Amino acid sequence: MKIIFATGNKNKMKEIREILGGLTSDISSMKDEGIDLDIEENGTTFEENSMIKARAVADYCKEKGMSDFCIMADDSGLEIDYLDKAPGIYSARFLGHDTPYSEKNKQILEKLDGVPDEKRSARFVCAIGAVLSDGKEFVVRATMEGIIGHEIAGENGFGYDPIFFLPEYGKTSAEISPEEKNAISHRGKALRMMEEKLRAQLNA
């Protein structure tokens, strides 16, 4: 089975290949496949947006005569309880798509200036939707809990990782190793949940 992940994000693809590599070595991104679609993510939840993307790419692949594929798409973001779970599904679009995350992270820290740790609870959420060439669909959701730190720290992650503090590690998710992050991250958990579903499907 060929897996096509509906993303052009190289950092995401690195994580995806590391985690799903035991399922198949044939994992590519939309970009790898030359698929250029303008998909409007107009869902109201992470789950809805992930399925919108997966279905759109699956429809495209069917039109091109492809068979025996699994299209996956994720929608992920940061929920901050003090900010009524913002930026949430708008995490990538927060302050504009082209605004660097260094600025997004700075703005969030300013919004939480003076807020005590017990009110800085937050989580990364990841929903992954999958559409198989036979029409079957799956969706999973996973989270990684933490708090918003008080400063930007770490070089290993991307996005909001440098402000997402993991109390059990005493570090941000940009300061732990990629291996540690894959073991506990929202995307790592969701990918492993999806892998279980696909393995069960392949063995059915």
What does this structure look like?
32% of the residues lie in helices and 25% in strands. The chain is an alpha+beta fold and 204 residues long. Strands 1, 2, 3, 4, 5, 6, 7 and 8 form an 8-stranded mixed sheet that branches. Strand 7 and strand 8 form a beta hairpin.
What CATH architecture label applies? Alpha-Beta Complex
Net shape: globular
For the biggest sheet, the summary is: 8 strands, mixed
Let me know the number of strands: 8
Please tell me how large the radius of gyration is: 17 Å
Number of helices: 5
Task: Please state the average pLDDT score.
Answer: 93
> Strand pairing plus helix content: what structural class?
alpha+beta
Output the helix-strand order: EHEHEEHEEEEHH
Strand content: 15-25%
Task: Please tell me the total number of domains.
Answer: 1
**Sequence stretches where pLDDT stays below 50 over 5 or more residues:** none
Alpha carbon gap, first and last residue: 14 Å
Q: What is the CATH topology classification name? A: Maf protein
- The share of residues in helices is 25-40%
CATH class: Alpha Beta
